[in-house]
Amino acid sequence: MEFRIDSGDLTEAVTWAARVLPARSPVPVLGGLLLEARPGRLRVSGLDYEASACVEVEADTVREGRALVLGRRLLDICKVLPHGGVECAVEGARLSVTGGEARFGLSLLPLDDYPAQPALPALRGVVDADAFAAAVGHVAVAAGRDDSLPVLTGIRLALDGTTMTLAATDRYRYAVRTLEWKPEDGGGDGGGGGGGGAEAAGAADVVVPARRLTDIARSLTGAGPVRLALDGGSVGFESEGMRTTTRLLDGRLPRHDKLFALGEHAVAVTERAPLVEAVKRVAVVAEGDSPVQLAFAGETVHLQAGYEDDVASQRLPATLTGAESMTVAFNPGYLLDALGSFTTDSVRFHLLGPGQRALITDRPGGVHQHLLMSVKPLV
C-alpha cells in the first residue's frame, strides 16, 4: 500500500475516525485504525464493541492495499506533521509516514484479527446536521452520569411523522427538544427490537448513549443533510464520505408528557443572558447544594444565595403573570446548565410554586423545554 495525501486531509480523517477508539481495550487491534488505499481515495475506519466510524478522503493512490496501525499513535503523528503533502507506504512490517523532512514508522497490527465494520442499519430519513447537533446539545446536559443506571445516561430519539423528539433526564431534570426531519418514503420497517422499537410503521422510540450521540452530532456539524439509519440494535448516520454507528441502550426513558403538563400556573419572563450572569454572580456564596432563590414580583426578579453573613443578591427586570408573586429556588449548577442550553434572548419560567416542578421554555409552545425541580427557598 502506498499513497500521497495532504497533511490536513489526513489529520482530519484520522481525527474523525479515532473518536470511537476505546481508551483502553483488552483486545489490542481495537485500538487500531484501518487504512485502505483505493483508486483516488483513502478510507480510514475505527471501531470498538459499541461504535464505529468510517471516513473517505481524496488521495493519490500509488499502490492499493490495507494497513492496520495504532490509531492514537497515528493521530499524534498527524498533529505534528508539517503542512503540505504526506507520503505513506507499507514497508515490510511497518507503515512509513513522511512529511517534508520528517519521517515516522509505525508497526502494523494483524489484519486477520480485526473485526469487520458493522453494516449501516436501514435508512429511515434525512435530518439537517446543524439543527440536529444543536438539538442534541440542548438535551444532553440533562442526561445522567451514573453508569449503574445505564438507560438514564442516554438520549431518547423518537420519530413520529416529520417530527423528531430528543429527550434526556437524570431524574432531577428533564430536557426535551423537537425538530423537523424528512422520513424516507415508506417509513422503514418499524425498527423493533431491544432499543424499545417502534409503535407504528415509520415510528421509532429508542435510547442512544448520550456521550456517543453528542460526539457524533458535533462531528457532523456543517455536513448539511445527514442520512439517519436505525434498527432494533443500533443507530447510524451517514453524510458525504462519512459514516458512523453506535449501539442502542436497552430500556426506555420515563415519559415526559404528564410531567410537563403543569395545569394552572404562573409564568415569569426574563432576559436569559443577564440572568445567567446574575446566577453565576450570586452563586459564589452558595456552598455545596445551597440553592439560588428567585423571587418574582411585579416587574422584577430578586436573586439571592447564601446564609447568615455570607450572602449575595441581585435584582433584574422580569414580568410575572398568573400570580402576584412567586418565589422558587434551584440548584445553581442545574439552573445554569438549563439556561446555557437555550439560545434565545429571553426564557419563560412556568411555575407551580416553591418545592414543585418548574418548566423553562424558549417561547410559548416552544420546541425546547427543560424541567427542573425547585427546592425549598431560603429562609
The termini sit apart by 72 Å
| Domain module tally | 3
Major sheet description: 9 strands, antiparallel
Count, helices: 7
Task: Please state the average pLDDT score.
Answer: 92
CATH class of the largest domain: Alpha Beta
Which fold name is given in CATH as the topology of the largest domain?
Answer: DNA Polymerase III, Chain A, domain 2
Overall geometry:
elongated
Helical amount among residues, as a percent range?
Answer: 10-25%
Taking all Cα atoms into account, the compactness measure Rg is: 25 Å
| CATH architecture label name of the largest domain | Roll
SS-derived structural category: alpha+beta
**Number of E-state strands:** 27
| Oligomeric state of the chains present here | single chain
Give the full name of the CATH homologous superfamily of the largest domain: DNA Polymerase III, subunit A, domain 2
Order of adjacent strands in the largest pleated sheet: 6-2-3-4-18-17-16-10-14
Low-confidence stretches: 187-201
